[in-house]
Structures
1.
Amino acid sequence: MKKLLKPLLAIIVLFVIIVVGGSFYMLSYSLLPSHNKGRNEAYMWKLMKHRCPGDSLWLDSLRASHALRDTFVIAADGDRHHAVYLWPNNRKKFNHKVAVLVHGYTDDYISMLPIAHIYYKMGYGIMLPDLHGNGRSDGQEQQMGWKDCKDVRQWIAVATDIFGCEKAEGKRMVPNIVVHGVSMGAATVMCLSGDPLPYNVRCFVEDCGYTSAWDEFSLQLKERFALPDFPLMYSTSALCRLRYGWSFGQASPIRQVAKCQRPMLLIHGDHDTFVPTAMVYELYKAKPAPKCLWVATDARHARSYDKHPGEYARCVSSFVNKYMH
């Protein structure tokens, strides 16, 4: 019996070491990616001009005219977060409507400028935050939308203050707000949508968001490493809770969207394999009315606008025009 016990203990210890080491690696791989392209603004400007040639001249004009204005806030954890905002071309005819646009995983505000162009043409004010750990915002780790939604709530308050206008009788005109996100930004929007929000947040647009961080990481674990959920998903999620205060299961857009009573447009590409197209149907089913779904043909992950800029713009404008008044 003693002869069997020592090898058994050695196997158990080795298993624990492998799981713990694997958990640290997987957490770093998932939330602390070695290449964060959103930290390189020069690269992001070139990338978006290449991906969205129809918006290239407008992007150049923004830089030439210095139209994008920087603003910063201090988050609850003490980190300094960055955003840019953009007034419509004719401020005197500002329609008191604002779009808060939320970028994806390892992107920055620049990645949302082509979509901002849609709202700019409609006369909206634009707020474009850099999420925690991205762009010019402090922080290291990606938050997968869960803690990001609290930061976006703060940016909604900032947008309300910046774009709020004084009326003749001394009262402020509170702008109506749509919150629109892509990929991890879409997950952020959905996580936000299930919480109590100011009355002036009228509607949401989510583009290719995932059902939960657990579902997305589980998929990547299988596809990239050919590994099952047990034990690494469980141990890495527990480590995430210890280090960052949230678990993969807790970061659940589908659970939040089920509580959302405000209008939401859900967009997804039918060739999306990174966040499988099937997820949008689960999200749409979970979301109470009012809601609308558009599945873009031949579009890969986060490429629905790139593939169909005109149809994307028409779909978004038609949806928000119903509720932004």
2.
Amino acid sequence: GVSGTTPDAAASRGAPHEGFLATLALVFARPGLRRLVLESCAVQGVEKLLKPYIPVFLALAGLPVVLELSQAGGGLHDAAARLPARSVLWIAVVVACLHLFSALGSRQAHRIAALEAPGARVPGRLWTGVFVMISLQVIGVITGSLAPAAVGFVGFAFLFNAWRPAFLTRFDVDTPPDRQATILSIESQANTAFSAILAPVGGALVDQWGLPAIFLLCLVVVGTLFGLRDPENA
């Protein structure tokens, strides 16, 4: 019998597959692209991991006050009703600042992206800020102090929303125009895979060692990437 498949048709079907593999190899071969994908996985993975635990910590921050009042008599219900207005106000302020500074980070992101000239160290500054903010979160959660944790939460929210546009600017510079869609897809899938691994690991650590473990894990992830040599500034 005569096959209805011509060599050209077979080659055209194989071309997208080969193109994807070639692009994947390009990501691993270019230090700048590899760094961007790793950076994206770390930042977005940490943000997804921490987000559900922030309200947990804020709730726990007010719990000692409630328990102290409940021991004076009247039970937890009455204690919650007598929770000092200052404690409630602090928690409300932190939540409001999280939303406010997230929006502010997005609004100011174009200025940060505009600094992405050759030799600019915006990525280094952003990563220093992220590392400091998560360190403050760790200090606050371990010591049970709301103030450093709140600064860390709000600061990280601002930096996260400012980071993405700066990231895309660097991405445009380092990526061949005809490969950008494919590399963005690879970056997205890498984020999903990393988050799928990080989430159960973080949950297991919390079950074993308590809430501070999840923040320490995030600090290790960010610190590991922060310590890697940036090929652009090597």
3.
Amino acid sequence: MKPLPLEDFVWAGIHLVDVIAHLETLEIFSMLQGQWEVHHQAARKVLDHVETTVPLGNRSSTSAIAEVLSNLPEGDVRRRSLQLSIFNFIWIDVLAMSTFGAVSYCPCAFDYLPLLDSDIIRSQDFMGCQSQVFAIVTRITRLEQLQLMHQGEKHQEFTGPELQQQHSELEKQLGFVCRALGEDIEGLESVHSGLDLDAAMISLIWAYGARVLLQVVIAPIMSEQRSIDQTFVNICLEKLEALPTRLVMRTAWPYTITGCMAMSESQHHRFRQILDRVLQEAQAPGITWKGLIVMEECWRLRRMHPGQYFGWREAMKSLGARVILT
């Protein structure tokens, strides 16, 4: 049987991923957990098959999917459709990997990081958070995976120069992004309050969530401690409190990540108040209500077991629910 041309083969895979995404969405918004992970693993396997089946000699790019997307002209409805389909996968994948760790998922040869880096996939066009922040979260997840791989191979903690260098680079990138976004927000607030301002505010909160993530999954391993500096938690909390309630639903991931790492009762009260205000103003909470359930469990575990470390992963394990924070 003659193989399909590259473009047709990629589109066939993407159409299948679209069907899976619809099923996944139904599960994500059902009750506390749903069976979304079954569908996401299936989507990863489909995209892995697409990338590994096409011989390198039959394409000019390392990614078959990226090549088909890049060959479509700007303004072509097929390009926009393909961008949306790819982003739907990336969104869930970034959230899943950062929330639960890459070791939880089957390998996937589709590397979407170059698409985020080049702005070919602009996540801000779909859910508000800029692609540069999504890319950094992805790099943090991969760094955690690298550390765990070396730990497993050597049966000891991996704190070599490579890990330290990448960790330092990510800290610098996040610092630069936070400063740049802060300046963008100041400039946009003085001119108008449109979609660009919304995206900048959402992206800044995600960036501070990423700073907390980096502290939690990498820094404790390097420093042999699990105490989390509250500086970024407090800044993220302040940004969340200042965010218009209509946008809070776009920040379920940083809301939950930072909330779980909040250590004081006064912080806990403020995180609860954010969701209360959203509901009082009759705005859609999105998945933030699930995030608050995870936070409450994390705080409860910490009260019951003083001196022990508890984060969102431990809280979800205690709840028996792997919540995807869309």
